[in-house]
TrEMBL record:
Topological type in the membrane: Multi-pass membrane protein
Keyword Transmembrane: yes
Keywords noted in UniProt: Membrane, Transmembrane, Transmembrane helix
GO biological process terms on file: transmembrane transport
Cited InterPro entries: SLC26A/SulP_dom (IPR011547), SLC26A/SulP_fam (IPR001902), STAS_dom (IPR002645), STAS_dom_sf (IPR036513)
Main location class: membrane
Transmembrane segments: 37-58, 65-86, 92-122, 134-156, 180-201, 213-232, 262-286, 298-321, 341-374
Domain STAS: 448-549
Gene Ontology annotations for the cellular component aspect, listed alphabetically: membrane
Localization, UniProt: Membrane
Protein name, per record: Sulfate transporter
Presence of the UniProt keyword Lipoprotein in the record: no
Length: 554
C-alpha cells in the first residue's frame, strides 16, 4: 500500500470505523462478554416500558416503539462511532413524531424516518458531525426544556383519566383549553394509579438505585389495576394485543406527493437526531474517558433510521439516559447495546401478551418523570442569571419550541446565539496606544509624527466598524503609522478592507503604514484586499518599524 492509500485508510478509520471493530481489535474475551450481557440486560429493562410509553405519546402503537428500539438500537451499536451509545426512540422526538402522524399519517411518518436516514448518512459523509457541537449551550437547554413542557402537557389527559370527547388538539394552547373543558371527567382511579407509579419509581430510585425502578413501577401498577379491577384504560383496551415477532421489512410508499409531504419532517428528524445522538455520545465520553467518532456516529444513526422504517419503527437516536445507564452498568463496548436490542426482542416474543395489562395512567406517570428530568431546571435558571444575552437565547428558544415549532426554535435560537457571540467578540476586540509612543526606552523625545497602536482580539466584521472609526481618527496627523497584529488571531475580509481604506488614506497624504506581527493567515487576508506595497510595509515587530520610520521610511 502506497503512502496516499495509507493516509486515506487512516482518515477513514479516524472518522468512520465502527467502535465495534476497534473493541474487537483490542481483544474481546468471555469476561467482557459477561459484563456486556449484564449491562445490556439492565438497559433493556429500562428501555422496555420507556419505548412503549414514548411510542404511545407520539401517537403510534406501543409496538412501534419496540420495533424502533430493537432494530434501530442494534444497528446503532453495530455501526456507531461511540463505544457506549444506546439507540432507540427518544422523548425529544415525541413532539415532532406526533405532529408528523397528525399531518401525514403513519405511512408519512415511516417515509420521513426512512428519508431522514439518508440525510444523516450524507451529513456524516460530508463530515458535518464536528459542527453539531457549535450549537450554543443555551439553545440546547432551551429546546430541551421546551420539549419537557410539551411532553408533560401531552400526558395530562392520561394522568387524570380525562375524557375529551374527541381527538386531543396538538397545539399546546388549544390542548390546555380542551383539557380544562374536560376537568369534570377526572378519574380518581387513573390519578391515584399515576401518582402511585411516580411515588414508587422515585422511592426505588432513592432507596435502591441499582434496581430497575421504571419496570418495577409499571409492573406494580399493572398488577394493582388488574387485581382490583380498576376502571382505567390499558394498552390492551386502546391498542389491542401486541405482536410477538418483528414484521416483515417493507419499503414505505414513495409517491411524489408523499415525498413532498415527508421531506420537511425528514429534515427535522435528521437535525434533532444529529443533535441528540452527538450530545449523548459526548455524555458517554465524559463518563468513560473515551472519544467518539462523530461522523461515523451520524452514518450509523442514518442506517439505523432506514432500518427502523423498513421494520415499521420510527425515529432512532442516541438516548442520553439509557446510554448513561449502559456506562454505569459496566459496559465494555458496543456489544452491550446489541445485546440490549436482542433482550428486547426476547421480551417481546415471550411477554407481549402481558403488556396488554399495562395502564396508560402508569405510562403517563413514567413520562411525567422523564419530562421532569429532561427539563434541566438548574441549567435553565443559571443561564437566565448568567447574562442578558444567554437569558434571551434560552428564553426565546424555549418559547418558540413550546408555542411555535421545534425546528423554528432551534434555528432562531442558533441565529440569536450567533448574534450574541458576535456582539461579545466585537466588544472584546480593542485598539490601544503602544507604550514606546509615549515613553521611549532611550529617554529621548519620541517623534510625534510616528504613532504605534496594538490590536487585541479578532478583527472581523462585528468589530470592523467600531475599530475602523478609531483608526480613521488617529490617522489624521502622523507621517508614519505602525499597527501591531501580534495579538490578532483572526482577520476577516471586512477587517482587512478597513485597513485597505486606511492605507489609501495615508498614502494620499504621503504617510507610511507599517504592519507588524502579522501571522500568515492575517497577512493573506490583508494582501487579498490589496494591502501591499507601496500602500503598506510589513515588518516583523514594532522595533523594526520604528527604526524604519526614523530612517525616513527606508
Amino acid at each position: 500500500m502506497d503512502e496516499a492509500s495509507r493516509r486515506k485508510a487512516a482518515s477513514f478509520d479516524e472518522h468512520y470505523l465502527p467502535k465495534l471493530v476497534t473493541v474487537l481489535r483490542e481483544g474481546y474475551g468471555p469476561g467482557a462478554l459477561k459484563a456486556d450481557a449484564l449491562a445490556g440486560l439492565t438497559v433493556a429493562i429500562v428501555a422496555l416500558p420507556l419505548s412503549m410509553a414514548i411510542a404511545i405519546a407520539s401517537g403510534v402503537g406501543p409496538e412501534r416503539g419496540l420495533y424502533t428500539a430493537i432494530v434501530g438500537g442494534f444497528l446503532v451499536s453495530l455501526l456507531g462511532g461511540s463505544r457506549f451509545q444506546i439507540g432507540g426512540p427518544a422523548g425529544a422526538f415525541i413532539v415532532l413524531v406526533a405532529a408528523c402522524v397528525a399531518d401525514i399519517g403513519l405511512g408519512g411518518l415511516l417515509l420521513a424516518t426512512f428519508l431522514s436516514g439518508f440525510v444523516l448518512i450524507a451529513a456524516g459523509a460530508l463530515r458535518l458531525g464536528s459542527y453539531i457541537k457549535f450549537i450554543p449551550y443555551p439553545v440546547t437547554v432551551g429546546f430541551t426544556a421546551g420539549i419537557a413542557v410539551i411532553i408533560f402537557a401531552s400526558q395530562i389527559k392520561d394522568l387524570l383519566g380525562l375524557d375529551l370527547g374527541g381527538p386531543e388538539p396538538g397545539e399546546i394552547i388549544h390542548k390546555l383549553e380542551a383539557l380544562w373543558a374536560a376537568r369534570g371527567t377526572v378519574s380518581v382511579a387513573a390519578l391515584g394509579l399515576a401518582a402511585g407509579t411516580i411515588a414508587l419509581i422515585e422511592a426505588v430510585k432513592r432507596w435502591r438505585p441499582r434496581w430497575p425502578s421504571l419496570l418495577i413501577g409499571i409492573v406494580a401498577a399493572s398488577v394493582l389495576a388488574a387485581g382490583l379491577g380498576l376502571p382505567v384504560e390499558t394498552i390492551g383496551s386502546r391498542f389491542g394485543a401486541l405482536p410477538r415477532v418483528l414484521p416483515v421489512p417493507e419499503l414505505p410508499e414513495m409517491s411524489g406527493e408523499a415525498l413532498r409531504a415527508a421531506l420537511p419532517y425528514a429534515a427535522s428528524f435528521a437535525l434533532l437526531g444529529a443533535i441528540e445522538s452527538l450530545l449523548s455520545a459526548v455524555v458517554a465520553d465524559g463518563m468513560s474517558g473515551r472519544q467518539h467518532r462523530s461522523n461515523g456516529e451520524l452514518v450509523a444513526q442514518g442506517v439505523a433510521n432506514i432500518g427502523s422504517a423498513l421494520f415499521g419503527g420510527f425515529c432512532v437516536t442516541g438516548t442520553i439516559a439509557r446510554t448513561a445507564t449502559n456506562v454505569r452498568s459496566g459496559s465494555r463496548g458496543p456489544v452491550s447495546g446489541m445485546l440490549h436490542a436482542l433482550f428486547l426482542l426476547a421480551f417481546m416474543i415471550v411477554a407481549a401478551p402481558l403488556a396488554a395489562f399495562i395502564p396508560l395512567a402508569a405510562l403517563a406517570g413514567l413520562l411525567a418523570i422523564v419530562a421532569w428530568n429532561m427539563a434541566e431546571k438548574e441549567e435553565f435558571a443559571g443561564l437566565i442569571r448568567a447574562s442578558r444575552g444567554d437569558a434571551a437565547v434560552v428564553i426565546v428558544t424555549f418559547l418558540l419550541v413550546v408555542f411555535r415549532d421545534l425546528t423554528e426554535g432551534i434555528v432562531v435560537g442558533f441565529a440569536l446565539g450567533g448574534l450574541v457571540f458576535i456582539q461579545r467578540m466585537s466588544v472584546a476586540a480593542r485598539i490601544e496606544r503602544h507604550a514606546p509612543d509615549a515613553a521611549p526606552e532611550d529617554g529621548e523625545s519620541h517623534d510625534p509624527g510616528v504613532v504605534v497602536y496594538r490590536l487585541h482580539g479578532a478583527f472581523f466584521f462585528g468589530a470592523a466598524a467600531t475599530l475602523g472609526s478609531v483608526l480613521d481618527r488617529i490617522a489624521a496627523r502622523p507621517r508614519a503609522f505602525v499597527v501591531d497584529f501580534t495579538e490578532v488571531p483572526f482577520l476577516d475580509s471586512s477587517g482587512a478592507h478597513s485597513f485597505e481604506t486606511l492605507a489609501h488614506k495615508l498614502h494620499r497624504r504621503g504617510a507610511v503604514l507599517y504592519l507588524t506581527g502579522t501571522s500568515s493567515e492575517v497577512r493573506r487576508a490583508l494582501l487579498a484586499q490589496g494591502v501591499r506595497e507601496p500602500l503598506a510595509r510589513y515588518l516583523p515587530d514594532i522595533e523594526a518599524a520604528l527604526e524604519a520610520a526614523r530612517a525616513g521610511g527606508a
